[in-house]
C-alpha cells in the first residue's frame, strides 16, 4: 500500500541533528522560531544503546563504518547516523578552536566578524556551562589513560587531562556504542531535547534527498521516510521552510545533498580530515581498558602537527588490532586486560573532494601528501616511545612491512624511516571538514560569513563542512560555537519579521 | 572467519557452535555500503582461492587442514600487496567483531574488569590509582610473566581501593 506523502512546514527546516543541526535548532527554537529537525537515523534512548559492537554500529554508525576514501589505498571514514549524529558516538572531547587557526580563518576567509575572538570566547563559555564541560574526574580516568600519563611524563611531553562534556561519566568505556547512562552531553540528550521543549519538531528516520527551490530561493526539502530496515518505505516527505533551509548533514554528506540539489561552485571541494593511527602495547600489569572514560588523557603536539590521545576501544576493535592469527592471536585475546591503546590524529595539509557516488552514496577522493605522511609517521613513532616509557613489555605498531612486535623503544625510529609509506598504516578518520567551507569570497567558499549559500539564498550550511580547514583538535565544540553564533545572528535578523507578522 | 580463531586451540577457543560467524557476517554485509559489501565478498573469495594463487596448489582454503589455514592467513596478513593485506585484515576485523561480541568469549577475554563494571552498573564510583599513586598502585602480572616483586593476582585484587 502506498503511503500518502507527508507534508509540513516551519520557519526553518534543519537537516541533521549532530553538533551543527542541534545547535541551530536549540538557538532558533529558543528565539521563538518554528523548527523541524530531520534525521536519517533513529532516535535512541540511552538504555536502548547496545553494548555489542555489531549491534551498536548498526544502530548508530553510518554504513557500519564501511564508507572509505577512494583510490588504491582506501581508509575508513567514521560518522554517526542517529539523533545526535557523531556527537552520540564520539568520546565527548572538548577543545576550543586554537587561536592560530581562528586567526588564520578570520584573515584568509574574511570571517572576522563571525569569529571575533572575544565573542567566540563568550560563546565557548556558554557551551561549556550548558554541556557541563570539565576535566575527566580522577576516579574514572582508567588505567589506559593512567599509563599514557606515565609515559608522557617520563618523556617530558606536554600531556594533560582531557576535557569532556560528560560530567557524570561512570567510566563504562562505551562512548563509541553510545553512552548507556546519557552522561555524555551529546546532542540527543542535550540540545535536541532542549529544542523540542521549545517547540521544535523532530522527524527521525527521514532521509533528505534534495533542497526545494522557488524563484531562486531555498524553500524546503524533499525526502523519503525510511523503515527500521533503513530502506525507503515509499512515503515521500516534503517540508516547507518559510524562512530558511539549514543543511547540517555533516561534512561527508552535506556536499552530496547540495550537489544532488544542483549546487556547484565550491561545494564538495577542499575536504579535509584528521587521519588517525593507533598503537597497542602489552603491559605486565593489568591495564583495565574496560573501565574508565573512553578517552581521558592527551598530548597535544601542535608544533609537530599531531595530537596523541588515550583511547579505550571496545574489545572487538582491540582484538582486531592485535597481531597474529590462530593460537598466538587467541593467547593475546585471552588477556585483553593487559593492553593499552593510544592514537595519534594528524592535522594534514592535503585537501580532497567529495561528490555523490555512482555505486555508494558518497565518493571521497582524499590522499594525505608526503608532508602529512611524515607527520603520521612521527605521531606513531612517538606513541611507541611513550608506550615503552610507560613500561610496556612489547608494542604492536600496526605498520605493514615492519615487525609486528617491537621489543625496544629504539625500534620506533623504523616508523620514521622515509621508506614507510602511507599505505603501510591502518588509517581511519572521524573528523571531517571544509567540504562546503565558509568564505566571504565566493571564489574560495560555498557559503558566506553568515553561513548562507553564495548561490542559493535561504540555504544555510551549519556543520563541520563550513569550517575552512582542519582544526588540528577535536572539532565538536568549534562546530557548535560557530553555528551558535551564526544561528543567533540569523534569529536576530528574523525576529522583526515575526513581530510584523 | 572461524579459521582466525579455530575451535580446539589453546586460548580463547570458542566451543563448537558457540559462534555463528555466518549470521553475523550477513548482518555486516547488509549494513555496509555497496562498495564495502563488495570488498567483504572479494575478501572471502581472495582467501578461499588463496591456496591456488599464493601457493600454486589446486585446492581451496576450506579443504586445508587447520594449521595450514592458519599459516595461509598469516601469510596473507603480511602480504606485500596492500589489497591482499587489507582485505584479509577486513576479514580478521569481522572475525574479531563476531568473536568478542559473544558474551561468553568476551568474559573469557578478561577485557571487562568485573568488579569495576559491577560498580559502574550500580552507580558506585571507584577510585583508580592516578600517576601520583603509581608507587603503590595495585598490579596484576601478565600470565607467565616473572614479576619477581612478590605481588600476585590475589594480593593485587585485595589492595584495590573502592570509593
Description:
The complex is a heterodimer of chains A (about 500) and B (about 160). Chain A is of the alpha+beta class and about 500 residues long. Chain A has one domain: FAD/NAD(P)-binding domain (3-Layer(bba) Sandwich). Chain A has twelve helices and 18 strands. Chain A has helices at about 20-30, 55-60, 100-110, 115-130, 140-155, 190-195, 255-260, 315-320, 325-335, 370-390, 415, 475-500; strands spanning about 5-15, 35-40, 135, 160, 165, 200-205, 205-215, 215-225, 230-245, 270-280, 295-300, 305-310, 340-345, 350-355, 360-365, 395, 430-435, 460. In chain A, strands 4, 10, 11, 12, 13, 14, 15, 16 and 17 form a nine-stranded antiparallel beta sheet that branches. In chain A, strands 1, 2, 6, 7, 8, 9 and 18 form a seven-stranded mixed beta sheet that branches. In chain A, a hairpin with a 4-residue loop joins strand 11 and strand 12. Mean pLDDT of chain A is about 95; it is low at about 495-500. Chain B has eight helices and no strands. In chain B, helix 2 (about 35-50) crosses helix 5 (about 80-100). At the A-B interface, helix 2, helix 5, helix 8 and helix 9 of A face helix 1, helix 2, helix 4, helix 5 and helix 6 of B.
Relevant terms:
heterodimer; A: 501 residues; alpha+beta; FAD/NAD(P)-binding domain; 9-stranded antiparallel sheet; 7-stranded mixed sheet; 27% helix; globular; disordered C terminus; B: 163 residues; mainly alpha; 8 helices; 0% strand
Amino acid at each position: 500500500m502506498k503511503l500518502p506523502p507527508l507534508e509540513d512546514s516551519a520557519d526553518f527546516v534543519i537537516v541533521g541533528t549532530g553538533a551543527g543541526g542541534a545547535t541551530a535548532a536549540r538557538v532558533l527554537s529558543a528565539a521563538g522560531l518554528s523548527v523541524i529537525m530531520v534525521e536519517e537515523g533513529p532516535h535512541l534512548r540511552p538504555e536502548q544503546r547496545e553494548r555489542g559492537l555489531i549491534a551498536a554500529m548498526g544502530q548508530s554508525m553510518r554504513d557500519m563504518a564501511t564508507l572509505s576514501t577512494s583510490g588504491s589505498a582506501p581508509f575508513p571514514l567514521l560518522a554517526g547516523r542517529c539523533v545526535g549524529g557523531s556527537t552520540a558516538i564520539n568520546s565527548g572531547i572538548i577543545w576550543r578552536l586554537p587561536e592560530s587557526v581562528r586567526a588564520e580563518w578570520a584573515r584568509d576567509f574574511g570571517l572576522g566578524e563571525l569569529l571575533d575572538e572575544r565573542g567566540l570566547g563568550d560563546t565557548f563559555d556558554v557551551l561549556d556551562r550548558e554541556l557541563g564541560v570539565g576535566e575527566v574526574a580522577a576516579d574514572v580516568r582508567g588505567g589506559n589513560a593512567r599509563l599514557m600519563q606515565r609515559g608522557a611524563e617520563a618523556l617530558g611531553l606536554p600531556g594533560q587531562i582531557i576535557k569532556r562534556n560528560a560530567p557524570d561519566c561512570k567510566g563504562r568505556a562505551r562512548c563509541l556504542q553510545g553512552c548507556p547512562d546519557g552522561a555524555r552531553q551529546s546532542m540527543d540528550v542535550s540540545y535536541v531535547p532542549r529544542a523540542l521543549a521549545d517547540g521544535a519538531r523532530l522527524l527521525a528516520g527521514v532521509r533528505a534527498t534534495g533542497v526545494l527551490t522557488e524563484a531562486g530561493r531555498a524553500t524546503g526539502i524533499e525526502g523519503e521516510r525510511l523503515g527500521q530496515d533503513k530502506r525507503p518505505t515509499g512515503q515521500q516527505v516534503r517540508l516547507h521552510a518559510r524562512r530558511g533551509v539549514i543543511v547540517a548533514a555533516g561534512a561527508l554528506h552535506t556536499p552530496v545533498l547540495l550537489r544532488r540539489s544542483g549546487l556547484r561552485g565550491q561545494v564538495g571541494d577542499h575536504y579535509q580530515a584528521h587521519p588517525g593511527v593507533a598503537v597497542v602495547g602489552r603491559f605486565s600489569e593489568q591495564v583495565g581498558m574496560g573501565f574508565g572514560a573512553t578517552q581521558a588523557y592527551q598530548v597535544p603536539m601542535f608544533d609537530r602537527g599531531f595530537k596523541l590521545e588515550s583511547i579505550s576501544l571496545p574489545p572487538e576493535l582491540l582484538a582486531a588490532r592485535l597481531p597474529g592469527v590462530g593460537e598466538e592471536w587467541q593467547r593475546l585475546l585471552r588477556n585483553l586486560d593487559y593492553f593499552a591503546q593510544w592514537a595519534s590524529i594528524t592535522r594534514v595539509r592535503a585537501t580532497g573532494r567529495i561528490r555523490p557516488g555512482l555505486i555508494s552514496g558518497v565518493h571521497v577522493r582524499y590522499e594525505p601528501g608526503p608532508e602529512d605522511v611524515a607527520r603520521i609517521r612521527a605521531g606513531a613513532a612517538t606513541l611507541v616511545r611513550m608506550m615503552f616509557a610507560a613500561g610496556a613489555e612489547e608494542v604492536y605498531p600496526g605498520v605493514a612491512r615492519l615487525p609486528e612486535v617491537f621489543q625496544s623503544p629504539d625500534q620506533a625510529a623504523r616508523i620514521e624511516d622515509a621508506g614507510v609509506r602511507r599505505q603501510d598504516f591502518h588509517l581511519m578518520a572521524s573528523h571531517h571538514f571544509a567540504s562546503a567551507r565558509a568564505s566571504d569570497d565566493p571564489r574560495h567558499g560555498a557559503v558566506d560569513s553568515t553561513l548562507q549559500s553564495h548561490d542559493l539564498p535561504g540555504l544555510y550550511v551549519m556543520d563541520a563542512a563550513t569550517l575552512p580547514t582542519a582544526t588540528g583538535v577535536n572539532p565538536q565544540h568549534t562546530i557548535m560555537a560557530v553555528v551558535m553564533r551564526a544561528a543567533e545572528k540569523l534569529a536576530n535578523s528574523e525576529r522583526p519579521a515575526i513581530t510584523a507578522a | 572467519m572461524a579459521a582466525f580463531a579455530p575451535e580446539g586451540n589453546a586460548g580463547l577457543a570458542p566451543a563448537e557452535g558457540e559462534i555463528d560467524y555466518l549470521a553475523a557476517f550477513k548482518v555486516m554485509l547488509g549494513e555496509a555500503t555497496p562498495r564495502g559489501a563488495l570488498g567483504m565478498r572479494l575478501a572471502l573469495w581472495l582467501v578461499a582461492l588463496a591456496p591456488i594463487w599464493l601457493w600454486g596448489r589446486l585446492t581451496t582454503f576450506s579443504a586445508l587442514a587447520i594449521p595450514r589455514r592458519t599459516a595461509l592467513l598469516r601469510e596473507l596478513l603480511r602480504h606485500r600487496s596492500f589489497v591482499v593485506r587489507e582485505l584479509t585484515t577486513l576479514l580478521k576485523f569481522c572475525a574479531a567483531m563476531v568473536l568478542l561480541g559473544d558474551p561468553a568469549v568476551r568474559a573469557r577475554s578478561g577485557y571487562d574488569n568485573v568488579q569495576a563494571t559491577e560498580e559502574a552498573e550500580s552507580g558506585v564510583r571507584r577510585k583508580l590509582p592516578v600517576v601520583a599513586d603509581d608507587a603503590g598502585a595495585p598490579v596484576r602480572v601478565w600470565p607467565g610473566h616473572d614479576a619477581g616483586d612478590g605481588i600476585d593476582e590475589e594480593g593485587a585484587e585485595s589492595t584495590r581501593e573502592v570509593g
